[in-house]
Amino acid sequence: MSKWYLILCLALTSICLQAQPPQGRGARMGGGNRQGPPPGMGQRGETGKAEEQFRLDSFPEIPGITLAQRADIGIVLTGEQKDIFKYVREKHKLMDKDRQSPGRSEKEKEKTQKNIAAIDGKIRKRIGKSDRKIRKILSDEQYRVFLEKRKDFLFVRVNPPGFRPPENRRPGERQGGGNPGFRQ
Question: What is the largest CA-CA distance in the chain?
């Protein structure tokens, strides 16, 4: 009798332990050891950081625009904003590197300035690409109005779940400097 009781207790204990989610760092609902980010966290780039996500926050009035046109423009401009944000991040890394090493040679400083100018060129090229796509979507008059109001399109960076903004800033509050069409 005690032999069967011992076997039964061991079997029930092992079943209960297997049914528990993993404990400790990185435990997720449902357990398991999934690869990639949790749902809703965005895709991870080569650096392992979550890819930035943006939402078009302000869409100025363009006469006669349809919902389909509005959606297409939103997609184009949001993609543009993501790319520009990546370029600006690269540019800031170069500028920080330049500032943190004051004893660099003139040749190294010129190389950094050329790289920064190349990034500025990429940004202009990306904006031109978006403008050509939007030109195909809109009529002549709508496109003229779009160009006049292009700076009025504002974006909000969508923070991943669990993100807490710094204490001195509220979510959605505008940051100083940088791209005037960007709000964090």
Answer: 91
Q: What Rg, from alpha-carbon coordinates, does the chain have?
A: 26
Where does the chain have alpha helices with state H?
Answer: 2-18, 67-100, 106-137, 140-149
pLDDT digits (tens, 9 = 90+) for 66-80: 999 999 998 999 899
Assign residue 103 a region (left: φ > 0; alpha: ψ between -120 and 50; beta: otherwise).
alpha
Q: Indicate whether 136 pLDDT > 90.
A: yes
Coil vs helix vs strand at 178: coil
Cα–Cα distance between 52 and 167 in angstroms, integer? 21
Question: In 10 A of CB 102, how many CB atoms?
Answer: 6
Residue in this structure with the two tokens 């500032």, named with its chain if needed = 99
Single-letter residue type at 18: Q
- Determine if the pTM surpasses 0.90: no
What confidence category does residue 64 fall into, taking pLDDT thresholds of 50, 70 and 90? very high
Question: Do 109 and 98 meet the contact criterion of CB atoms below 8 Å apart?
Answer: yes
Q: How many CB atoms lie within 10 A of CB 54?
A: 20
> What is the DSSP code (8-state) at residue 183?
E
Whole-angstrom distance, CA of residue 120 vs CA of residue 100? 21
Estimate to the nearest angstrom the gap between the alpha carbon of 121 and the chain centroid: 21
Query: CB atoms < 10 A from the CB of 92, how many?
Result: 13
What are residue 58's DSSP bridge partners? 154
